[in-house]
Amino acid sequence: MAEAHQAVAFQFTVTPEGIDLQLSHQALTEIYLSGMRSWKKRIIRLKNSVITGVYPASPSSWLFVVIAILATMYTRSDPSMGLIAKIQEHLPVSQSMSTQCQVVLSAVLFSTMLWLLLIFTMRLCLKQLLSYHRWMFEQHGKMSTTTKVWVALVRIFSGRKPLLYSYQGSLPNLPVPTIKDTVKRYLESVRPLMDDAKFERMTKLATEFESSLGNRLQWYLKLKALWASNYVSDWWEEYVYLRGRGPIMVNSNYYGMDFLYVIPTPIQAARAGNSIHAFFLYRRKLNKEEIKPVSSATSTVIPLCAAQCERIFNTTRIPGEENDTVQHWQDSDYIVVYHRGRYFRLRVYQAGRLLSPREIEFQIQRILDDPTPPCKGEAKLGALTAGDRIPWAKARAKYFSSGVNKRSLDCIERAAFFVTLDDDEQCVMGDDSAASLDRYAKSLLHGKCYDSFCCCWTRFIKGFSNRYTLATDSFQLGYNAEGHCKGEVDASLPRPQKLNWEILPECEEQISQSLAVAQALADDVDFHVFPFQDFGKGKIKKCRVSPDAFIQMALQLAYYRERGTFCLTYEASMTRLFREGRTETVRSCSNESSAFVRALEGGEVRPQKLRLFRAASEKHQLLYRLAMTGAGIDRHLFCLYVVSKYLGVESPFLKEVLSEPWRLSTSQTPIQQVELFDMVNHPEYISCGGGFGPVADDGYGLSYCILGENLINFHISCKHSCPDTVSSKLMFKYLIVLTFGHNS
């Protein structure tokens, strides 16, 4: 094969005249350019590390401090108050260095120490300023004098033109709440879910825990918080994600949809070409840290933690029998593409440059047109990653630890990302758009259960969910009149390399078993996606109510109307105001929300219902703000439980708390990079958001995306195996509730 020959830098043969070297100029050129690209990246990383390390100052400020100190000395004054002379005394004696040179060197050393001290002071001040969160609890549109002064100080101590990770060293650590506050808030959150007898029993357990074991566990947790950047994040990742032994397909992964009303091109290879190219442009911005640090939605001066950006690309999840591990590589110049049971390695860099969208389209089309059949056992190989983790870990160690299988698996796991080219077109338009959306959602969530690697993967079904990629694809790269990517093609590009496998019969048996597990899980998922267009956040805000609180209250009412009871409700909130912050739980079912629902169902007069609704909405906003500012309860209780397991002690209270099912798991899909889209002039360029599977077997998973002023997209999931849950049924009740809220 041509690509195999081009991968060899030189060949040699032994002849009677000696050794005949056959150098490949193209291969040597590739090696040289690849090395240059690697060194350029190292230099960029080193440069960014220096800039980030001295932020909020700049490297050039060092020269300013040195010049200022030297200038002051030449005016015959000593700004160091004798420290420069002390430094000069301790300099090693050198015959070649004059006294004047020693003075200058001492001054430079003092200036450097002063500069570093100033940087440390500025970072410490900025860290203390970013620990102030009272601004979040103030009434919208009314800023106190204290907060105004605080905003001014934050702007002063924040440097100019920050890189993506510039604020990481200045973000405060996540605080550990007190046992008393956590227990109090927990009991308050479960009161509407329990009758008097159950609540009295839980109160007794909580009181015993607070007065005895809780203080001991809290001491260890505070000790961890002193030396760890975040006392939650590492344990949360390990025990909630990496130690789960069930399938991560449906249970852990999520999806994002394409544009709702626009199909930029009908050509699959062209759409993939633009999207892949845009994804690598985004990766280049990440590597250079050129992406502006994300700020809080409520304040543009408050930076959020960017730690999660580090593992978007070149990252995979390696299975283990007890727990998985996350493996990240610094760089990868290729992707792996799946199509009709075959895996292809596609290099996206040629001669040191990123392939153009048209060239990537050309390569993708080669894969689509490739008639080569899959290797024996290859077609459904991906099912190993979609089933339970232990069988996959054992199969990986037994069948993929050497030879051609190891080389092909390494190629997949080290790729920048994984791409699936589907055979079936998924379109949200047509005669039955509702059913199309539902099929589209299920396809994105689990596909065929074998057409992707469930670790770190990206799926193309004539679309790509990343908002940056969508914007770059449609508004910057674009397509020609025929629907192809723009630009020219270098026809000499080496063909994508098909990966080879040697799958043994016993391995095929394990593939079939894993596929059966994954298929049963996928078939059990009931999904319903609905764009709600009767009204949106525009009219909700006119009622002086938070759109998120409005939706959560409507959801409480919908669930109560369906099941006749309340349930433990999970709403995801971010804690990225803190270093390495991830998420916290907002318990949306509260005493106030249940009082509002009962009043509405009990036929109370309208003023009473409105009063209770506002009280419930305000309580929800308070809970959300507490979660964002480190005063949530669930991550604290989780970490206390982990400490108890390490110490080998049992806590009836923690055991019961951690075993409670979340029958409503909800999340709002945030809208980022809004500046990339002109929603006013191009309202059709909106995404339907994304969704996830249900957390509890008898519960719902609900994701919603608030777009523009007049659209809310909902994604509802549950399981067919539960006779009490039907996604479209909840959606129907939900729409009734929203319409009621609009009319009220």
UniProtKB/TrEMBL annotation:
Record membrane topology: Multi-pass membrane protein
One GO location term (cellular component): mitochondrion
GO MF entry, a single one: carnitine O-palmitoyltransferase activity
Superkingdom: Eukaryota
UniProt-listed GO biological process terms: carnitine metabolic process; fatty acid beta-oxidation
InterPro entries: Carn_acyl_trans, CAT-like_dom_sf, Cho/carn_acyl_trans, Cho/carn_acyl_trans_2, CPT_N
Residue intervals passing through the bilayer: 50-74, 103-126
All residue ranges annotated as the Carnitine O-palmitoyltransferase N-terminal domain in the record: 1-47
Domain Choline/carnitine acyltransferase: 174-730
Pfam family name, one: Carn_acyltransf
Gene3D superfamilies: 6.10.250.1760, Chloramphenicol acetyltransferase-like domain (3.30.559.10), Choline/Carnitine o-acyltransferase, domain 2 (3.30.559.70)
Keywords: Acyltransferase, Fatty acid metabolism, Lipid metabolism, Membrane, Transferase, Transmembrane, Transmembrane helix
Location in or out of the cell: Membrane
Record-stated family: Belongs to the carnitine/choline acetyltransferase family.
Protein name (database record): Carnitine O-palmitoyltransferase
Source organism (scientific name): Anabas testudineus
Lineage of producing organism: Eukaryota, Metazoa, Chordata, Craniata, Vertebrata
Gene name for this UniProt entry: CPT1B
